[in-house]
Amino acid sequence: MRQFGKDGKTLLAVRCNGCGRSMKVENGVLKEGCFLGRQDFGYFSTMDGQRHSFDLCEECYREMAKAFTIPVEMEDITELL
Ligand SMILES: [Zn+2]
Q1: CB–CB of 14/34 below 8 Å?
Q2: How far is the CA of 46 from the centre of ligand 1 (A)?
Q3: Which listed site, 3, 45, 46, 74, has its alpha carbon 20 to 30 Å from 29?
Q4: CA–CA separation, 39 vs 3, rounded Å?
Q5: What are phi and psi for residue 46, nearest 5 degrees?
Q6: Which is it for the CA torsion 32, 73, 44, 18, positive or negative?
Q7: Measured in angstroms, how far is the CA atom of residue 35 from the centroid of ligand 1?
């Protein structure tokens, strides 16, 4: 869950939706690994017209991914954000 300033752009806080922990944010920048899940459900969905979004800290992300039958696809990246 993300909170933004009055300008709607400046990141103020991020809390993990899984465990509720506040993640480290400094000067509008998230300073730790975070999984942002976001999906707009469309016409063929039973949730048509809904946008779901959540943030997970790395620990909660690992726990979620461990429950998958098919493992997460991983590849090395050279350009980091
Ligand atoms: Zn968490």
Answers
A1: yes
A2: 28
A3: 74
A4: 18
A5: -75, -10
A6: negative
A7: 10
CA of 65 to the centre of ligand 1 (A): 13
pLDDT tens-digit series, residues 33-68:
999 999 999 999 999 999 999 999 999 999 999 999
**pLDDT for position 79:** 82
For residue 50, report the distance from its CA to the centre of ligand 1, in Å: 24
Residues 26-38: pLDDT tens digits? 999 999 999 999 9
Query: For residue 33, with 0-12 CB atoms within 10 Å meaning exposed, 13-18 middle and 19 or more buried, which class applies?
Result: exposed
Largest CA distance in the chain: 42
Beta-carbon neighbours within 5 Å of ion ligand 1: 16, 18-19, 57, 60
Provide the 3-class DSSP secondary structure of residue 43: coil
Instruction: Give the per-residue pLDDT at 81.
Output: 63
